[in-house]
Amino acid sequence: MFRFAPYILKTLWRHRTRTLLTVSGAAVALFVFSFVAAVQQGLDGLTADRQSERTLIAFQANRFCPATSRLPEDYERTVARLPGVADVLPIKVYTNNCRASLDVVVFHGVPAERLQQHRDMTLVSGDWAEFERHRDAALVGRGVARRRGVAVGETFTVGAVKVRVAGIFTSTLPTEEDFVYTHLEFLQRTEGMNSVGEVTQLEVRLDEAANATAVAEAIDGRFRGGPVATDTRPRGVFQAASVADLAELIRLAGWLGFACVGLVLALVATTTVMSVQDRIREHGVLQTLGFSGPRIFSLVLCESTLTSLAGGLLGVTAALAVLFWARLSVGTEGVTIAFTPSKAIAATGAGVSLAVGMLAGILPAWQAARTNIVAALRHV
């Protein structure tokens, strides 16, 4: 079939405007398809890592947005003594928006000297010593840094919080790159928060042999009669509950991805049918030259597949490039969902383009292969 590649390319170029419009339409549809797939992959990633199962989040009971959760900081010592608990990290959370937004900035105030023990992050600029030495210093995730255009040494202000960027980091977890880490005491003492001695949540790491459900029940039972009751869940469950409403919208958007696939199918099939109808006489000539029906079927099928694949690869490449450089995310209640580009999305997009191109070309190719030679040669 490769020896007929020049003929196939010339056929497509003969009606270049129609071909380019079809390729463009397929590219736009696969661009949207890839974006939807990236959001869904980001949602799945909230609970995919094993650490989400071995880490509990203790939050104030009957609270939702981080701004409303206030736990006494000394709860940390009590929780640390419970059986099955390996370590406890107090976290003060501040976010510029508790509602769903494409530009949520989430600050996590933690004890600076313990951050490296609890987070798998790599500084791409700046240094740890600078962060630990200055009370108003912050480590900014690469996603936030790109969206807000900040660099090391600059001042970064969101709402009442004003920090100096001591470093920019990447992480193995895409959602981590949408956080800004500051000193716990700094965030507690920020003007207007009035939260000295209070934290938003406790991040509880479990021993390997600990039962997560039993430890969570023990924590909530310990503080049920205390000054502030807690609601403790595995981190993955806690994050999933925080974005539950948003997750429903994302799953609904999945139907948009299927609609895009249907659009490419209809577009490529229509273009291929038009191409076959324009070349009825040509197919008759090919048969007189000895081309069999299966050979003509293959040529037409290759045309539709190549058109779909070209548009699909263009759309998927553009989508992945935008996702990689823009580092987009959507968040609510202090939990973010990163639009995650990946090789899996690229492979899926390419596979969908290939399959749709072949499916769209079957009927037109079958019609071309069954062309009657005499009727075709008489066709004007």
Keywords for this entry:
380 residues; alpha+beta; 2 domains; ten-stranded mixed sheet; two-stranded antiparallel ribbon; 14 helices; elongated
Q: How many DSSP E strands? A: 14
Amino-to-carboxy terminus distance = 29 Å
Largest sheet: 10 strands, mixed
Overall domain count: 2
Supply Rg.
29 Å
Question: Can you write the helix and strand succession as a string?
Answer: HHEEHEEHEHEHEEEHEEHEHHHHEEHH
Count of helical regions: 14
| Estimated structural class | alpha+beta
Q: Estimate percent helicity.
A: 40-55%
Shape descriptor reads elongated
Task: Characterise this structure.
The chain is α+β, with helices and mostly antiparallel strands. The protein has two domains: 179 residues, no CATH class; 193 residues, no CATH class. The protein contains 14 helices and 14 strands. Helix 2 runs antiparallel to helix 10, helix 10 runs antiparallel to helix 12 and helix 12 runs antiparallel to helix 13. The two termini are 29 Å apart.
